[in-house]
Specification:
Layout (H helix, E strand, L loop, with lengths): L8 H16 L13 H10 L4 H17 L5 H7 L8 H7 L1 E7 L5 E6 L5 H4 L5 H27 L6 E6 L5 H21 L4 E7 L5 H8 L5 H4 L2 E3 L5 H7 L21 H4 L3 H23 L43
Parallel strand pairs: 2-3, 3-4, 4-5
Antiparallel strand pairs: 1-2
Helix pairs in contact: 2-3, 7-8
Length: 337
C-alpha cells in the first residue's frame, strides 16, 4: 500500500481511533515536532498494517528516541545542525557523499548517495564518528520536517516520500566492511522512527560482488522496503531518465545538471526546499531593512536565533519494522574486514 492508495472505510475508522488514542494516552501532544496531521499518523499505521496496538507502540518508541537521541534529543540536534551548511561539510562530502538534489517527474525529492566514494579513514580526519552520525540523523529529520513537505507543496499534492539513488561505482567488499554498521544503523533508524518516507530506491552501478553484499543487506530491510528496491548494473541511465528529467539529474548519473554555479550538485542543495529557504531569507532581509528605517538604532546586540533552520513541519529512509534495535548510540564501524 502506498501513500496515494485511498483508505477503506475500516482504515478511516482505525485512523480516527489512532488519532484519538495517541492524544488521550499522551503519546503525542499538539505541536510535537514528530508531526500530528493525518499524513504523519498514517505512516505509522501503514508501517504496521493498520494494527492499532502495534502502531501505537511504534510511535511511542519513536517519541522516546526523539527525546533522547545523541543525548540532547532530536529537536535540539536539529536546531544546532543545519545539514545544508555546517563546518567541514565539503570535506565530509568528499569521503561520504549523500545529498538532496531536485525532484523526479512525480515531484519526489531525490536523495543521491555515492557509496563508491566512501572512505571512513579519510572522513574521520575531518569529523568525529559521533558528529558524523549526528549529520546522518539530522539529515533524516530534515527529510521528514522540511524536504518532503516542501516538495509536496511545490508539486501541489502529497508526494509520499523520497526517491533514493545509490551509486556503487567503484564500491567493493573492503568498503562494504567499512560502512556496514553505518548503513545498517541508518536503515534501522529510518524503519523504526521515520516509517514510510522512502518511495523508491535505485541501486546503480552494482558491482559483481553485489550479490554477496545484498545477502547481508536484505535481511536488514522490511519486506515492504525490499519490494521498493531496484538493482541496476551499468546500463541504468535510460531507466533513471524515465523517472527523472535530465535537467534534474546530475551528469554523473547520465543527466544534464552540474549546479556549476553552486559548487556542484552535491553541495548545492538544489530543489524546492532551497528555493523556499532563499525566499524566506530574502523576506527576512527585507523585513529587517524595513524595521531599520522605521526605528532608532539600538546599542544592544541582537539575540542569537534559536535555530539554524526555518521551521517547516509537514525525513536514509525506509519503511516497516526492522530486525535490529538501534538504541541511541553512535554505530561502531570496524574499518577492516
Amino acid at each position: 500500500m502506498t501513500s496515494s492508495t485511498p483508505l477503506t472505510g475500516q482504515q478511516e475508522d482505525i485512523l480516527e481511533q489512532f488519532r484519538r488514542q495517541v492524544f488521550q494516552e499522551d503519546i503525542v501532544r499538539e505541536g510535537d515536532s514528530i508531526g500530528t496531521d493525518d499524513l504523519i499518523l498514517l505512516r505509522f499505521l501503514r508501517a504496521r498494517k493498520f494494527n492499532l496496538d502495534e502502531a501505537k507502540k511504534m510511535i511511542k518508541d519513536a517519541q522516546q528516541w526523539r527525546r533522547t537521541v545523541a543525548g540532547v534529543g532530536i529537536d535540539e540536534l536539529y536546531n544546532q545542525l543545519d545539514v545544508f551548511d555546517y563546518p567541514g561539510r565539503e570535506q565530509v562530502f568528499r569521503s561520504w557523499s549523500m545529498f538532496f538534489h531536485k525532484t523526479d517527474k512525480m515531484g519526489r525529492p531525490l536523495n543521491i548517495e555515492f557509496l563508491g566514494g566512501c572512505d571512513l579513514t579519510e572522513l574521520y580526519k575531518h569529523i568525529t564518528p559521533e558528529k558524523h552520525w549526528e549529520t546522518i540523523v539530522t539529515t533524516t529529520e530534515t527529510l521528514a520536517r522540511k524536504i518532503i513537505p516542501t516538495a509536496s507543496r511545490a508539486a501541489g499534492h502529497d508526494i509520499g516520500g523520497v526517491f533514493i539513488i545509490v551509486d556503487l561505482k567503484g564500491f567493493g567488499l573492503s568498503q562494504f566492511w567499512q560502512v556496514k554498521s553505518l548503513v545498517q544503523a541508518s536503515f534501522q533508524m529510518s524503519q523504526d522512527y521515520y516509517p514510510e518516507t522512502m518511495a523508491k530506491l535505485a541501486i546503480v552501478n552494482a558491482p559483481s560482488s553485489f550479490t554477496f553484499i545484498w545477502s547481508f543487506v536484505k535481511p536488514w530491510l522490511a519486506k515492504e522496503t525490499a519490494e521498493k528496491v531496484d538493482v541496476l548494473g551499468s546500463d541504468y541511465q535510460d531507466v533513471l531518465l524515465q523517472l527523472v528529467d535530465a535537467e534534474n539529474l546530475p551528469t554523473t548519473l547520465g543527466g544534464k545538471c552540474t549546479c556549476e554555479h553552486a559548487g556542484g550538485c552535491d553541495l548545492s542543495g538544489a530543489g524546492p526546499w532551497r528555493d523556499e529557504r532563499l525566499a524566506r531569507s530574502a523576506q527576512a532581509t527585507n523585513d529587517t531593512i524595513t524595521v531599520d528605517t522605521r526605528t532608532e538604532p539600538s546599542s544592544s546586540s541582537p539575540s542569537e536565533p534559536t535555530s539554524k533552520h526555518e521551521e517547516n513541519h509537514g525525513s536514509l529512509v525506509a519503511d516497516g519494522p526492522s530486525n535490529v534495535d538501534p538504541g541511541t548510540n553512535t554505530p561502531s564501524d570496524d574499518i577492516t574486514p
